[in-house]
């Protein structure tokens, strides 16, 4: 089988490519012109130059492929052009699924996000049955993913064999950029995390997320959604586990939410308005931290066989990779 992967140079996509190759799957990666794809080429991945907004390149990239993993997205908590999120994440998704429908691809796995199910409000955990509205999305990225998932589901009605996966907060190796969760881990092991917020998240090993994509291709029901998650954990507990792994003290100071939000507004005004640069403290990240982003991933575990690597192992793999990648010394 030959599978085309969009977003193969990213965090989830890069790990997915490695899992597919380990299974003996032939992989073709859609890579934007000018993007460094050396690591993929060294793995033996076929590179197809293209862009989600270039419909012709998508048709060429899908030629001869039996499966499509659409992982690519513009994932940032802030952007200088808010409209770019819809261009890439909504129109780009529509373009690639239109091309998949025309090419006769046998099955598609679309990567959404668990955030489209909203956040935990006490009581039952959000699951695939939870109904959220676009007003629950706190920023341009999440609003665009909510809309993109809605678009993706429409293609099932048009005959496309499509399954949706909704990852929570993956951690682990190959978080090159890094993601917001990865940056939190990197800042911690660098000793740049003096305090914490009273919040929580669902942490999952990125390898489990990658394997979940493959399981969705093999076992997922057309039109169904599967939350690819692991363990629900408070940020305070996360830092204590990281402290034991990285041999650094966990922060003991808890910042009130109002103070963090005020600092984020001030930083946004200084950075964006005066200095014309990306904010150090993204407003969207602080707004999300107001809620515990906990989820129920039991459907993926029971129906797909999603692995559940212990959170300690996931964090240790992330710490080891970040230290090597960014030359972070072990604390004395």
Describe this entry's structure for a reader.
The model has no long low-confidence stretch (mean pLDDT 94). The protein has 332 residues and is α/β, with parallel strands linked by helices. The protein is 45% helix and 16% strand. The chain has a domain at 2-177 and 204-230 and 294-309: 3-Layer(aba) Sandwich (Rossmann fold), CATH 3.40.50. α4 (83-103) runs parallel beside α5. The longest helix has 21 residues, at 83-103. The protein contains twelve helices and 13 strands. The protein has helices spanning 11-22, 38-43, 55-62, 83-103, 140-157, 180-189, 206-219, 235-246, 257-274, 283-289, 298-304, 311-326; strands at 2-6, 26-31, 46-49, 67-70, 107-111, 162-167, 169-171, 195-196, 200-205, 225-228, 231-234, 253-254, 292-293.
Q: If you compute it from the alpha carbons, what radius of gyration comes out, rounded to the nearest whole angstrom?
A: 19 Å
CATH architecture of the domain at 2-177 and 204-230 and 294-309: 3-Layer(aba) Sandwich
User: What order do the strands of the largest sheet run in, or round the barrel if closed?
Assistant: 3-2-1-4-5-6-10
The low-pLDDT segments are none
Proportion of helical residues: 40-55%
Structural class by secondary-structure content: alpha/beta
Let me know the number of strands: 13
- What is the averaged pLDDT score? 94
What is the fold named in CATH at topology level of the domain at 2-177 and 204-230 and 294-309? Rossmann fold
- Global outline: globular
Query: CATH homologous superfamily of the domain at 2-177 and 204-230 and 294-309?
Result: NAD(P)-binding Rossmann-like Domain
Could you give the order of the helices and strands? EHEHEHEHEHEEHEEHEEHEHHEHH
Distance between the termini: 49 Å
Strand content: 15-25%
CATH domain class of the domain at 2-177 and 204-230 and 294-309: Alpha Beta
Largest sheet: 7 strands, parallel
**Helix segment count?**
12
């Amino acid at each position: 089988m030959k599978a085309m992967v969009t977003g193969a140079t990213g965090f989830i996509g890069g790990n997915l490519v490695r899992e597919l190759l380990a299974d003996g799957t032939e992989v073709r990666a859609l890579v934007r012109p000018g993007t460094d794809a050396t690591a993929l080429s060294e793995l033996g991945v076929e590179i197809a130059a293209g862009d989600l907004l270039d419909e012709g390149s998508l048709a060429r990239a899908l030629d001869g492929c039996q499966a499509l993993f659409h992982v690519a997205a513009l994932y940032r908590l802030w952007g200088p052009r808010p409209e770019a999120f819809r261009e890439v994440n909504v129109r780009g998704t529509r373009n690639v699924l239109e091309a998949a429908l025309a090419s006769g691809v046998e099955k598609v796995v679309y990567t959404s996000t668990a955030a489209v199910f909203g956040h935990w409000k006490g009581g039952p955990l959000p699951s695939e049955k939870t109904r959220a509205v676009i007003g629950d999305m706190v920023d341009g990225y999440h609003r665009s993913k909510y809309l993109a998932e809605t678009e993706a589901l429409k293609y099932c009605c048009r005959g496309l064999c499509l399954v949706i996966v909704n990852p929570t907060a993956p951690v682990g190796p190959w978080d090159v950029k890094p993601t917001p969760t990865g940056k939190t881990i990197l800042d911690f092991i660098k000793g740049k995390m003096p305090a914490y917020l009273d919040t929580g998240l669902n942490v999952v090993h990125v390898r489990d997320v990658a394997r979940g994509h493959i399981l969705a291709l093999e076992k997922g029901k057309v039109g169904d959604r599967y939350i690819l998650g692991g363990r629900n954990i408070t940020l305070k507990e996360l830092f204590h586990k990281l402290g034991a792994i990285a041999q650094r003290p966990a922060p003991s100071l808890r910042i009130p939410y109002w103070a963090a939000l005020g600092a984020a507004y001030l930083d946004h005004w200084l950075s964006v308005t005066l200095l014309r640069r990306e904010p150090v403290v993204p407003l969207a990240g602080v707004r999300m931290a107001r809620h515990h982003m906990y989820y129920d991933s039991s459907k993926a575990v029971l129906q797909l066989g999603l692995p559940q690597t212990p959170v300690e192992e996931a964090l240790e793999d992330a710490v080891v990779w970040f230290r090597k990648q960014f030359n972070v010394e072990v604390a004395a």
